[in-house]
Amino acid sequence: MRLVYFLLMLTFTFSSQALHGKESQEHRVIILTDIEADPDDTQSLIRLFLYANQIDIKGLIATTSCWHKAEVNPNSIMKVIKAYGKVQPNLTKHENGFPKAKTLLQLVKSGLPKYGMLGVGDGNDSEGSNWIIKELEKNDDRPLWISVWGGVNTLAQALRTIESTRDKEEAKRLIAKLRVYTISDQDDSGIWIRNKFPDLFYIVSPSDHYGSATWIAINSVIDNIDNKTISNAWLAQNIQQGHGPLGAAYPDVAWGVEGDTPAFLSLIPNGLNVAENPAWGGWGGRYALYKPDFIENKEGSSGSGVPYEPETRAIWTDTEDSYTPYIPKQFGRTVKSHETAFKSNKATLWRWRDDFQNDFAARIDWSTQPYKKANHPPVPMLDHSERITVKSAEGFQLSASTSYDPDGDNLSFLWFQYPEVGSYKQAIKLGPPENAHAIYGTAPEVEKEETIHIILRVTDKGKPQLSRYKRIILTVEPK
Predict the structure, then answer these.
(1) Region 30-44 average pLDDT
(2) Which of 225, 262, 409, 438 has CA 20 to 30 A from 72's CA?
(3) Buried (b) or exposed (e) across 51-80, using 16+ Cβ within 10 A?
(4) Three-class SS state of 290
């Protein structure tokens, strides 16, 4: 009987892993960076390596951009990796799976020191473009994310080579595995890619100037909120000084802090991010799939100096959230609604900014602190499925009573609807209180099936405070 029980449990375990394997897989990514064009690429690399056990880094390619047209700087990538190597052994005391520095050094490649489309065409293959193709051709069913922090011509050349050297079906299969998130257009090959490969998954904010892009919210000062976690004083205290070799390597802000980081934030497994569906929102912002028509760009160029060209097909691009933050309350219930409601594409990203900044600060602590002296994220646990079906106007209960913190910290709970994400856009009755471990809600009256996304945010009271999430998708059926 013991043997039978053991075999049944083993079968259940493997079945469960097979069922949930896709969700638990690390996203694989290749970084294209115009490092040395702005100190923010170095800043973003330092943050990236602190998640190197949760994101499967497959390439680090030095490229050009409109700011950095005639040179590439792979040695600058290597410099950051060497600083990471000094702290990698300590990082493994906190979580498993951090790769050794020598492994990451083998992933450093170069694109051509040519700007934009000057580097695309016959004779323009590079170790960077060849590396992208090599990774695409591996026997790996996972999508390959290309996180673009500068120009994208290295990817453009890889796509051109695939199209000209593979048969049509093979080229289509390879290109279908690509997912591109690029920080606006920083050379003229981005629009060429989108026009030439209309089925390619592509996230970009090709707006009239950098100030209107979604990603800029990572370093935008927003009126009527506390912006301290992007301040120079906060960075000096929590990242740069007294946090080991990686912190010491983090340069001062020159233009804007970590403008490239949103290109990989959505790949971090935090319970909120769903990278394959940018419309669901997450740390990297929220995007909608449509063909934009930026009227202000009919003539001239973007803020990056890249000539404007109209989009010819749907892309994942800017969309808005209407967001009213919850803020601390001194007495009674611990949270209350902010007096200001915000509505913008930037709100899709900065609404999570304090959470991912605190997460960064905690992980850089890991590079020098023993486990017991550092903070680690809480673990939200639902007492029910993440997908629930109810009838029109029915009540329902959500509960996360078994959530826990690995450090034994006290936990705070916050439940809220994300109306832009579901098919039902109106506010529903949820609570109060919004901050208990269990909450009651009432489904709206509907005439057709609707979906509603409800987010649970669990935050510990460690230092810094860390948050993780659960996304509950409520399906409401008509009676």
Answers:
(1) 97
(2) 262
(3) bbbbbbbbbbbbbbbbbbbeebbbebbbeb
(4) strand
What Rg value do the Cα atoms of the chain yield, rounded?
A: 23
Closest alpha carbon to 147 in 48, 69, 272: 48
Beta carbons within 8 Å of 289's beta carbon, 6+ residues apart? 278, 279, 314, 315, 316
Residue range 3-16: average pLDDT? 37
Contacts of 275 (CB under 8 A, 6+ apart): 27, 145, 179, 266, 267, 282, 284
User: What per-residue confidence (pLDDT) applies to 7?
Assistant: 39
The pLDDT score that the predictor gives to residue 308 is 81
CATH number of 25-318: 3.90.245.10
How is the chain split into domains, by residue range?
25-318, 377-479
- Arithmetic mean of pLDDT, 214-237: 96
**What value does the mean pLDDT take over residues 224-241?**
97
Tell which residue, 397, 421, 430, 427, has the closest CA to residue 473.
Answer: 421
Query: In the predicted model, is pLDDT for residue 4 greater than 60?
Result: no
How far apart CA 299 and CA 176 sit, in angstroms, is 33
What separation in angstroms does the CA of 390 have from each of 78, 196, 427?
Answer: 54, 45, 16
